[in-house]
Amino acid sequence: MPVIGENDNSSSMSPLEALETRRAQDLVTSPPPLLPVEILEQILQPQWKRCEDSHTWKEMANDMLSCSLASRTLYAIARANLYNDIQLVPSRLKSLRLFLRTVCEDFGGHCPAHALHFRQGPLAYQHGQGKEHTMLTEEIISCCTEIRYLELEGGRYSLQFTSGRPLPEYPSLKKLKVSGLDLHFLAPLLPRLLNLESFEAHSCDRSRDLVVLEEHLPPSFKLSTLSTSHTRLSRHQCKWLFASSSQSIESLKVQEVGASLCYLADIMGGFVKKLHISHLYYRQAISRFVNLQSLRIGEFDLHTDALRDDMPSSLKTFTFNWSRKTIQCDVPELLRCSWQPSLQSLDIYQSPTVNIENFSDETRQLLIAINNHLIEPCAARGIQINWLP
């Protein structure tokens, strides 16, 4: 029988040499050590916004799919990233069916998505498929209880929560954006958004809102930001939607200043601190925002009589678009009559001052002379001017 160590070179090595030899052998024969999960998550974490760069998304998605085949750990990380931001086109019923089947079979009916977008694409419906579209869309949203951002685009077949099935709560959903939808179709969903902070509505109608809204409890979320554009809201609808948020909304953006602004002012005017409007036509509505600290007006005609006579004296920041009239006449006139004594800064958009180096000497001197009309009264009151592109 061979003697142990007879043919073993390690018997003539020192313990340190033997350890180094064993380490070298292990590096050759053993699989490479796996990085900690936390480091792998940082490496594979997507550094792009899917909705803004579809080409990059496709490339990264292919990389994620390859990683998911390498090991169980990489599979779990890659899958979480692939399902983090989901974009679906409701008109493609085959995609909706496939996605829902995947959620049911691979995730047990519970989708881990954090962002869910329903975008309108080319219509591909056949006669009678509208009901299936509605059912699939509602079922998918019901499976995504961890979403933080939900975007819904309406179209020929708008989303309608009309099946009568109970909807789950969405405690993580902070931001909701809807466009082209009849808001009354969302009435069953909105009360389930307990922690919604931002609500954006674009091109939404108010038809039949009174009858439908009375069938549901009003939302209990505490919004901090509200934005509407091309959206008409009735007094009843405003009250149903935002009564619970009347004291929490700090930022309000209304593109079309119609009767809706008056209704919103009645509900939350005493608490809004930041207001962005396109036109200053409804003077009686502006006067109701008694604690306003920041005002932005999108038009070039500031209607200085309304600003002077109807605005509460609480502004700290005033934002407007550059024009020769506003710089040379309107704003200096307001400042010299002690308008808004607490005013600290002026933010001026679309100002040629930003690119003044690109103008001829004559034009540059003209712009400097125009702007001096504003600089002098601002300097006298210690008001900062921010020229913005």
Describe the secondary-structure layout.
Blueprint: H1 15-29, H2 37-44, H3 54-68, H4 72-82, E1 85-88, H5 93-106, E2 115-118, H6 130-143, E3 149-153, E4 175-179, E5 198-202, H7 209-213, E6 225-229, H8 235-242, E7 251-254, H9 259-268, E8 274-277, H10 283-286, E9 294-297, H11 304-310, E10 317-321, H12 324-336, E11 345-349, H13 361-381, E12 384-387
Parallel strand pairs: 1-2, 2-3, 3-4, 4-5, 5-6, 6-7, 7-8, 8-9, 9-10, 10-11, 11-12
Helix pairs in contact: 2-4, 3-4, 5-6, 8-9, 12-13
InterPro entries: LRR_dom_sf
Organism: Rhizopogon vinicolor AM-OR11-026
Protein name: F-box domain-containing protein
Summarize the structure in words.
This protein is an alpha/beta fold. It has a domain at 293-389. 37% of the residues lie in helices and 14% in strands. The chain has a twelve-stranded parallel beta sheet with strand order 1-2-3-4-5-6-7-8-9-10-11-12, covered by helices on one side. α11 links the parallel β9 (294-297) and β10 (317-321). α8 packs parallel to α9 (259-268) and α12 (324-336) packs parallel to α13. The termini are far apart. This is F-box domain-containing protein.
Main sheet record: 12 strands, parallel
Helices and strands: which structural class? Answer: alpha/beta
Described by the principal axes of the CA atoms, the overall outline is: globular
Radius of gyration: 30 Å
Order of helices and strands: HHHHEHEHEEEHEHEHEHEHEHEHE
Mean pLDDT: 80
Amount of helix: 25-40%
